[in-house]
Specification:
The complex is a heterodimer of chains A (327) and B (96).
Chain A: H1 4-26, H2 30-50, H3 54-83, H4 95-118, H5 127-137, H6 142-150, H7 152-172, H8 186-209, H9 217-233, H10 245-267, H11 280-304, H12 320-326
Helix pairs in contact in A: 1-2, 2-3, 3-9, 3-11, 5-6, 6-7, 7-10, 7-11, 8-9, 9-11, 10-11
Chain B: H1 2-25, H2 29-54, H3 58-95
Helix pairs in contact in B: 1-2, 2-3
The chains are: A mainly alpha (327), B mainly alpha (96).
Chain lengths: 327, 96
């Protein structure tokens, strides 16, 4: 029996979530839409916690509210400063857009409802199956076991998608300077001195936690990315000699390590992503560590938006004129 | 004790709902941003209270992430506003 206050809490939270989602989509001022989106993500994390899904709640709080909020704010600032004015979108929807979007949404909702009927009815879902094989997975937390072992290819392809996103962003343009003018404030310096070590420590904590409790590479990576972003906002930048090949290697390192671990299976006569039983735990931990590093850099690169200036994604230009322009 | 924690968590959620008025009305961007920041802080309190009431320690980790990351969004906002506010201040100084 749910206690009274908790029941009210559970009723109020979804109502606020729906209102926030609706306002975030329809608000004509883009800045307000971003703020509503950040608030939406914070409360959504609370909802995941109430649904007893701590892993999703952690990811939602870290990636949704923290990194995505910063990404949207930074992107909006950049677009507005390029446009030279505050951006908004039409307050009223065109009737055709309303009808088309409404039809598409209704169709999607109907499809979802229909697919609910087709789901196999399994008492307890796949939970018992995972619990039975947990000992073979090399880790003690079922979610990490599923993400990095039982259904490792999902995570592998997710990381590939993130990499593709960075490649697409880098193809579009060179990065504009991250700050129009550096924030010079003793408050920020003191804040960073305190926050950067704590963020680093907490990232390590969440990463280590992943092997036996809710936590893991993505959550740790967003804390690490938050640290990198703080440094960027304080005017730090990557030295030019690091922004070429070394940065690219670090970006793909996690994916390559995961791929290498996946290929060990076929090389030793097993299936793809079937790790050798004796090495399961060290392999998963190594992949998680390298993934954390790469994902943190990938998230930071998406917020910066654009390839490092002065780096050469294509074969080095031959003409001295182009050489001069690069410098 | 459990009842008290749950009651307080509900009360805090109601304060978040009231905070939505600031996001809706503003009037300035800073009011809206601070309102969202306040949600982060209130969220930490709600998580700790609910964690205490239901004896689940993993909620503390979510609260930790809330507390650490909401600061970064605030800095992103300050970096956005700084130039225009300086300009505003210069205009004010000039006028007075």
């Amino acid at each position: 029996m749910t206690p009274g206050p908790l029941l009210l809490f559970d009723l109020l939270l979804p109502a606020v979530l729906l209102w926030l989602a609706w306002r975030s989509l329809t608000s004509s001022d883009l800045f307000r839409a971003v703020i509503l989106f950040i608030a939406f993500n914070l409360l959504l994390a609370l909802a995941w916690v109430r649904l007893e899904a701590p892993d999703v709640a952690l990811a939602e709080a870290a990636i949704g509210a923290g990194v995505t909020g910063t990404l949207l704010l930074a992107a909006l600032t950049r677009i507005e400063s390029a446009a030279g004015r505050r951006l908004s979108r039409p307050a009223r929807w065109r009737p055709a857009a309303l009808v088309l979007t409404g039809t598409a949404l209704l169709a999607a909702a109907a499809g979802l409802l229909w697919s609910l009927r087709l789901l196999p009815t399994m008492p307890g879902g796949l939970g018992p199956l995972v619990d039975r094989h947990l000992a073979e997975s090399g880790v003690d937390h079922p979610v990490t076991a599923v993400l990095l072992n039982f259904r490792g290819y999902d995570t592998l392809l997710e990381v590939a998608v993130l990499l593709l996103a960075v490649i697409a962003i880098w193809c579009l343009d060179e990065a504009v300077p991250f700050l129009q003018q550096p924030l010079e404030s003793p408050l920020l310096t003191g804040f960073n001195r305190m926050m950067l070590p704590i963020l680093l420590l907490s990232a390590g904590y969440l990463l280590w936690l992943g092997s036996h409790a809710p936590g893991g590479a993505f959550q740790a990576a967003s804390l690490l990315a938050a640290g990198l972003l703080l440094a960027l906002f304080s005017g730090a930048s990557l030295p030019a000699q690091w922004s070429g090949l070394p940065l690219r290697l670090l970006l793909v390192l996690g994916f390559l390590a995961f791929l290498a671990a996946a290929i060990i299976g076929p090389l030793t006569g097993r299936a793809l992503l079937h790790y050798p039983p004796a090495w399961v735990k060290p392999l998963i931990l190594l992949v998680e560590w390298l993934l954390t590093l790469s994902i943190a850099l990938i998230l930071t690169a998406t917020v910066i938006g654009g390839r490092p200036t002065g780096s050469r994604p294509y074969p080095p230009p031959a003409s001295p004129a182009a050489e001069g322009r690069q410098r | 004790m459990t009842e008290l924690c749950l009651g307080l968590a509900l009360f805090l959620l109601v304060t978040i709902v009231l905070g939505l008025i600031r996001i809706r009305r503003g009037p300035s961007d800073a009011d809206r941003m601070l309102s969202a920041q306040l949600f982060g802080t209130t969220g930490v309190a709600i998580l700790l209270l609910l964690g205490q009431a239901t004896d689940r320690t993993f909620w503390w980790d979510v609260a930790l992430v809330f507390a650490l990351l909401s600061a970064v969004t605030a800095i992103a906002f300050v970096s956005r506003n700084e130039p225009s506010e300086t300009a505003q201040q210069q205009r004010d100084d000039h006028g007075s």
